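It is worth pausing here to work through a concrete case rather than discussing structure prediction in the abstract. The textbook approach is simple: state the sequence, then state the predicted structure, then interpret. We follow exactly that order.
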Amino acid sequence: MCGIAGWVDFERDLTGERTVLEAMTRTLANRGVDDRGVWLAGHAALGHTRTAIIDIADGTQPFVAEEDGAVRAVLVYNGEVYNFKQLRSELEARGHRFRTRSDSEVVLRSYLEWGADCAQRLEGIFAFAVWDVRSQELLLVRDRLGVKPLFFSQPPGGALLFGSEPKALLAHPAVSPVVDADGLREMFAVAKKPGQAVFRDMRELPPGHSLTVSRTGTVRRRYWALTAREHTDDLKTTVGTVRELLDDIVLRELVADVPLCSALSGGVDSSGITALAARWRWRLEGQRIRTFVTTFDEYAEKFRPDDVRFAPDEPFAIEVAEHVKSDHINIRLSPKDLMDPETRLKVLLAQDAPTTLGDMDTSNYLTSQEIRTHSTVALVGEVADEIFGGYNWMFNPETVGAKAFPWVAHEALQPSSLNGQGRGLFDLGLLERVDMAGYYNETFHEAAAEAPHQEGESPEERRMREIGYLTLTRWLPMLLDRGDRLSMAHGLELRVPYGDHRLVEYLYNTPWAMKTFDGREKSILRAAVGELLPKSVLERKKSPWPVTQDPEYLRMLHTELAALLDDRNAPMQPYLNHEAARAMLAQPAESNDWPIRMHIETALQFNAWLTHYQVQIDV
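Step two, the predicted structure:
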């Protein structure tokens, strides 16, 4: 995996801007720990940092294609294209010659053969930029689900800047860290708006889109979208098709020239991927897969169920590891680990903005850090809940029937979600101006109107298809962005087998009644991987990423909140609800459940963000 950055400016010669380009590229050093390079000529400047995964020796970027001794096009690329071997064979048959084994060269040659339409032929997770020297055009492309990030900015004067993360754009003198009301909405939202970024002068290229930049302007094209079509397979055929797809997907995603592992939570999602990977790895190489699970000190021994977690991960993960005979590692974290100031700052810097997820982000960051000491690539179970139907708010009549994002409706039912997730300690005047309720209402109706449907659907099927679309396009982006940023902070590549577009398209059109044929969530997935897993795992109810239950962590949070409240010079002071903060501190820390903690954690992150990014709030 890698980081990409650069810009084009048709009114200037950029060859003298190496210092600025290197500054932009350097911000992405953690994404590419093995190599760094830049290319400048005329109106274009491209930068790249590389974590080598395939063709370690010869995959250096920026990657240049020459013709008759002259540069024809230059590529900077972040990601993995899983069908690159098939594409290479096709391109060779069309006369292209290759000098490396890398998928990067296949992407560049695909552009030379098919232009912007090459995106439709690439299968994988990717974000890349191609500068076409002959046509003087820049092409930006992002993968179908948006697994890999890509931001851009168009400052006055006709230039366009791009980068894998906002920090790369902020390193350019034309971009300032200004955040307006839309940016705060994006920061607070758990329903993301495609293309919206937190910083005012940035946008994110939406998933499944390309952007062509030339002297005449910019043209954005959508090359992939979900479509509604009739599902004609019976249940047995559907389960069989899903299993065949998963077998093929996991096999393709095991390709790497570096150590690879599987992140194992002990749920059916990650366990299914792990079991398939373990079977392929043993069959093809006679090797065991390495697995990891994250837990906390005494978490399993003292676990208390909450509103969404019903059992600790560790015992189930160990059972799966023993079942598939993996080389298993338990990652144990303490409150001291989670509250370490340097670690928490790094979590913020990795994501370029606060989130409302608190210690889930910190433990995720530390998990990636530990995994990276053993492996460079990790398979994860993300996207399974979205396509197979695994969230509890998909089964609650009150949230299913709401004219709203169902997970936002679920949030509103929680007594601990004062003013919304993570917003309980923010100034009421600020929240009124941001108006998250109005924002959610507007974006919900926009998103629901986009959802493709079939004629003749029953009201239930229509609503559940709509929920599937909303989940994939408004909820999932938050999880994918979080996973990418926290893992790539250590140069760790996450691969998401359930995010393969063939599987996503097939399941989007599978009727809800079939997805829940046995009355449970993810019925088809359980059936597809049933013979691979222990019965206890197959019957386990979904449990999201764990949060610490150690009261010491809560007491530490209260101590930091009290210090913030007393610090008159803290940049958070104008945005802090002092009355709510004092009321929070008046409660025993041990009485705070995890949604309440999110309010404290978000406020503390917001203060650190204002400090380290010198953010200007413009609402």
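Step three, interpretation. DSSP finds 24 helices and 19 strands in the chain. The mean pLDDT is 95.
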